[in-house]
Design brief:
Structural class: alpha+beta
Number of helices: 4
Shape: globular
Number of strands: 12
CATH architecture: 2-Layer Sandwich
Strand content: 25-35%
Radius of gyration: 18 Å
Amino acid sequence: MSTELTARRILYEDADVLLVDKPPGLVSHATVDPRRDHLVAALRRLLRARDGEAGHLGLVHRLDRDTSGVVLLSRRAEHDATLGAAFAEHRIEKVYLAIVRAAGGASFPAGTIEQRAPLAPGRGPGGRTLVVRAGGKPSRTELRARLSEGELVLVEARPRTGRTHQIRVHLAELGFPILGDALYGGAEPDVKRLLLHAWCLGLPHPRTGEPLRVVAPPPRAFRSRLPGLDALEPG
């Protein structure tokens, strides 16, 4: 699975912000291993090849390595704090898609449901986030089934807090781990990636204050399993 960026992955760009469709398998930022590629480095290469220089790229949030979809970067250093505060104050709209399996006659709950299980990031084996009764961080995710095909269910997830692995843990706690999620019980032999995608990001533009909403089209791994997906829009 290639993690190299092409120009088509740039979803929106102006002098202030850039939103890019991150491929799965690529970490968002530099790690302790200087040889490991990451989104910011790949984007820098792309912009240098196109423009001769990359300019400022401020990563104000991140996605897990195996999650694909919209990532926001600041193009001006003076916007870094503004955009960071918008995330911290929950003024950013975040919409994800996940594919789960309703096996053995199970049905995904109807309507919009809320998962509020307190979470303890990194306390479990392999870096797992645990659901705990005491001492956990408050968390909240709104979940809604949008489409189904046989046992497969497409879930729209709107995290209202930003805990590590939050959507993955909340769906697993509900009994519907995300397909391809070996850490939380969703591994299947024919699923080669985590089927979690950051579908839509909405924010107040850092310079104008006008609403900006950007959608990353669902990748092939989603469309091949749920052909009706192309007709959907974020709710």
